[in-house]
UniProtKB/TrEMBL annotation:
<keyword id="KW-0067">ATP-binding</keyword>
<comment type="subunit">
    <text>Homodimer.</text>
</comment>
<dbReference type="InterPro" id="IPR027417">
    <property type="entry name" value="P-loop_NTPase"/>
</dbReference>
<protein>
    <recommendedName>
        <fullName>Iron-sulfur cluster carrier protein</fullName>
    </recommendedName>
</protein>
<feature type="binding site">
    <location>
        <begin position="26"/>
        <end position="33"/>
    </location>
    <ligand>
        <name>ATP</name>
    </ligand>
</feature>
<dbReference type="InterPro" id="IPR044304">
    <property type="entry name" value="NUBPL-like"/>
</dbReference>
<comment type="function">
    <text>Binds and transfers iron-sulfur (Fe-S) clusters to target apoproteins. Can hydrolyze ATP.</text>
</comment>
<dbReference type="InterPro" id="IPR019591">
    <property type="entry name" value="Mrp/NBP35_ATP-bd"/>
</dbReference>
<keyword id="KW-0408">Iron</keyword>
<dbReference type="GO" id="GO:0005524">
    <property type="term" value="F:ATP binding"/>
</dbReference>
<dbReference type="Pfam" id="PF10609">
    <property type="entry name" value="ParA"/>
</dbReference>
<keyword id="KW-0547">Nucleotide-binding</keyword>
<dbReference type="InterPro" id="IPR033756">
    <property type="entry name" value="YlxH/NBP35"/>
</dbReference>
<keyword id="KW-0411">Iron-sulfur</keyword>
<keyword id="KW-0479">Metal-binding</keyword>
<keyword id="KW-0378">Hydrolase</keyword>
<comment type="similarity">
    <text>Belongs to the Mrp/NBP35 ATP-binding proteins family.</text>
</comment>
Length: 257
């Protein structure tokens, strides 16, 4: 690949990372961080060493979702990633701030610089699958991050209330610009199963994502329901306790690339 990857800086000398997968969305709040977390949990449960690079610098939520409170260690310019209770390696700007409630008000280039440092200065060690929680949207910040990391592929997270068609198209074009394959679509908050009658309700309207997946020839790999247990697990930092293989097909697909 002679694309922009040739401009990338090498990873830290203590890192052996086999695959890097970016998780993107058209806007905030569709569940990009949740899907990133579930992917890492699913891989870790299969005996692969998973890692999460939280590139959502202005809205970092990965440490909270996993209940990681202890900051990452910094030793002579090198950063040791934090570990979740099930040993997923994590780095996030929140794990480097003295006070987790400090806002990060950086602009694109500084964000790109921070993400690049997560690649060059973090001693990741052995990692089978690194998932990158990308900044939301397809604007300049997302573009900068795209160009700061050697992504092997991206996963697009949508929800039925999005302008899904436009988002998918933008994501596909952005990925083409940097020669990165779109591995699949994940529709989050796709439906709600009524706990008393068992019927599925399309709260945000009927999904268009199947039609899009066919039109763009990108596999629709998972449709995740609205599930209060997921929201609660994220809120309480207990995502590793969640039962249910929401992304089994996606994870199986990733193992083939
Ligand atoms: P993003 O990273 O796209 O901004 P998050 O993953 O942080 O979105 O999710 C936004 C909020 O929605 C979180 O509070 C999360 O717990 C909740 N959420 C996401 N997906 C679901 C779901 N399928 N069911 C219930 N709550 C969800």
């Amino acid at each position: 690949n002679q694309g922009p990857k040739s401009f990338l800086k090498p990873a830290n000398k203590h890192s052996k990372i086999k695959k890097v997968i970016g998780v993107i969305s058209g806007k905030g709040g569709v569940g990009k961080s949740l899907v990133t977390s579930l992917l890492a949990v699913a891989m870790q449960e299969r005996g692969r060493q998973a890692a999460i690079l939280d590139a959502d610098i202005t809205g970092p939520s990965i440490p909270h979702i996993f209940g990681v409170e202890k900051n990452a260690e910094v030793l002579h310019q090198e950063i040791i990633p934090a570990l979740t209770d099930n040993k997923i390696k994590v780095i996030s700007i929140n794990l480097l701030l003295a006070d987790h409630t400090d806002p990060v008000v950086w602009r694109g280039p500084m964000i790109g610089g921070a993400v690049e440092q997560f690649w060059t200065d973090v001693c990741w060690g052995d990692v089978d699958y690194m998932f990158v929680d990308m900044p939301p949207g397809t604007g300049d910040v997302a573009q900068t991050v795209f160009q700061s990391l050697p992504l092997d592929g991206i996963i697009v997270v949508t929800s039925p209330q999005d302008l899904v068609g436009m988002i998918v198209e933008k994501a596909v074009k952005m990925a083409e610009m940097v020669h990165i394959p779109v591995l699949g679509l994940v529709e989050n908050m796709a439906y709600f199963t009524c706990p008393s009658c068992g019927e599925k309700h399309a709260i945000f309207g009927e999904s268009q994502v199947k039609a899009l997946s066919e039109a763009y020839n990108i596999p629709l790999i998972a449709q995740i329901p609205i599930n209060p247990a997921l929201a609660q697990a994220c809120d309480q930092g207990k995502i590793t306790d969640i039962e249910g293989d929401w992304l089994a097909e996606l994870v199986a697909g990733l193992e083939k690339i």
